[in-house]
Structures are given as structure tokens and as C-alpha cells.
């Protein structure tokens, strides 16, 4: 009978050794790709939001310049000396902001041209109010162009949020345009009363155009802010914006009423004093509304940046967790491979057990002991009684144990 040999453990092959590494790579590759994509997208969005905040800072600095310039224009048209202190202070404020962030917003060239015009205004002696109006009109056009440049270069004009887009459009386009147009409307009303009767038609046409521009910009501002409130998820936006917006809207309605042509008057023109007063009230209401809009817009951008930072932290945490799990998996697989290799080394070569019977050329052959005892194997003496031991002893020379069956009978005779 043949005893089966135990097969030693198989050594891991080349692909088997690479399996742990393949599993780790398969786990980490999609996680790493997702992390890189999230990091890049949030980095671009975060950079845009930070640049928009720079634009808000620049718009905040331009607000005093706009108000002071409109006041200086009204004083020059009316023939009064203009107070230069507020305008000079506002110019210095914008110069400091432009020196710090103008390079990134690409506004330095436009600001340099506008600043040169602003500083040259007091040195010019205007012989007539018409010349003063034309000079200030050129400067205010440059100011509105600087507003557009800041909105475009900072990314405010391409803001992805619905409410924040309406906010930036209102504070960066509609409100400055409404202030400048309201100042021009009041100044043209003053100029129209001083012109000869032959230029009445010209005055009426210019006033109608200025009135449409001023009221149109104010209406766009009101509609934009209400759209921002309706599309916003922030509960504090409406409470902060609607109250000063209502004040500004009432002031604009008063300006529209006072600037309308009077049918009963001789010239058909509005009362200049009433228009100037209404313009001053609208400007005062805008002064209260503008910082509220800028603060709300900046707060939304700050929340957006915090959201981008949270997404980046979550992506980094997911990547770190996946890397830790992959390392644990790699350690488990490598440990199992090492244990398998160690068991294969300790087992060594197995020779197995030799068979008790060896088959010969013709089949089964008896062993050497069987052939010595006449074909039968010698019994084991440990299992016999003393009488059997005596019977199995040889009786003489040349006799063998168990070869003479008549030996016991002869001894009895």
C-alpha cells in the first residue's frame, strides 16, 4: 500500500506578487483623479471670488469720487465756487487703492487718465456755464468707463450667482449711471433757463434725453435689487436692502415729478430749484444705499470662498482616508504573501513513504523473509506461547523452524 505524499504550498508567481500593488493603484487612482479635479476647479472659483472682492474694494473707493464730482459739476454750472476738499480727499483714496490692486485689475492706465483730468479741473477758468458742463461731462464719462473696467477685469460682470450678479450690476453700473444722469439733468435744467428763447427746442430735447437716462438707470437699479432679493437664499438681504431702496425709490419718483415739463409755464421747462433739490435728495438716498449693497455683495463672496475651502478640505480628507485604507490593504496582502512564502520554505522537499511491497516485472514478488521461510513470512515470536516457542526451535542440524510437520509425533513415540 502506497502512502500519499503531502504537496508543499505553491510559491506565489510573478502576477501574484503584483496583485497587491494593482489593487492599491486601482483604489487610489480614481480618488486621486477626483481630488485633483476638485482642487483645480475650486482653486479657479476661489481665485475669481477673491478678484471680485478686489473689485468691490475699488468700487467702494470710487463712490466718494462720483458724489464729489457731481457736486463740483453742479457748483461750476451754477457759477458757485466748488469745494475741492472732498474731491481731493476722494481722489487720494482711489489713488491708494489703485496703487495696491490696480495692477491686478488692470485699471492703472484708465485711472491715470481720469486723475489727470480731475486734478486739472480747478485750474481751468470757465468763462461760461456751458463750458463747465462740457468739461465735467467729459470727466464723468471717463469715470463711468473706469467703473466698467473694474467690473470686467475683476470678474464681477461674470459673477455666477443670480443674486450676487444683480447686486454687482446694480452697484457697479446702474447706481453710478443714475447719479451722473441725475446731476446732468439738474444742471441742464439750470442751463436751459439761461439760454435764449431760440434755443428752447434744443433745451427741451436735451432735458428729455437726460430725464429718460436718469429715470431709466434708477428704474434698472430698483428692478435689479428686487430681483436680487427674490433670487437670494439669504434672509438678511431683503431686510438690509429693501428699506434704503424704498427711500431711494421715493426720491427718484420726486425727481421724476419735479423734472417733468410744466405745461403752464412760458418756456415749458421745470423749476430748476425744485429739480436741484430733488437731485440732492436722490443723491443722499444713494449714499445710504450704496454701502449696503457693497456689504451684502462682499458677504456673499466671503461665504462662497468659505464653501470652496470646505470642499477642498472634504476632498483632502477623502483622499487621505482612501490612502490610509489602501496602505492597510497593501499591508494585509503583503503580510499574507510573506506568510505563504515562509510556509513554503519551512516545508522543504517531501520524499514520502516507501511501499511495503514492491511490484516486480511479473507482478507481485514476495519479500526476502518470505523466501527464506519457504514462501511464508516468519511469525513474530512476541505473540507465541512457551509451548509454541519449544515447537518452533530447530531439532537438529540442517533443520529449520516450521519445516518438519512430523517432528512432534516422533518425539511422542
What is the count of structural domains?
1
The largest β sheet comes out as: 2 strands, antiparallel
Coarse shape: elongated
Strand order of the largest sheet: 1-2
Low-confidence stretches: 372-376
Overall average residue pLDDT: 79
Number of helices: 11
Distance between the termini: 47 Å
The percent of residues in helical segments reads over 70%
Taken as a percent bin, the fraction of beta residues is under 5%
Number of DSSP-assigned strands:
2
**SSE pattern, N- to C-terminal:** HHHHHHHHEEHHH
Radius of gyration: 52 Å
Secondary-structure-derived class: mainly alpha
Write a structural description.
This protein has 413 residues and is mainly alpha-helical. It has one domain (15-321). It is 75% helix and 1% strand. The chain has eleven helices and two strands. The protein has helices at 14-78, 84-105, 108-120, 129-154, 162-194, 200-230, 235-259, 272-347, 368-372, 386-392, 407-412; strands at residues 359-360, 363-364. It has a two-stranded antiparallel ribbon. The longest helix has 76 residues, at 272-347. The two termini are 47 Å apart.
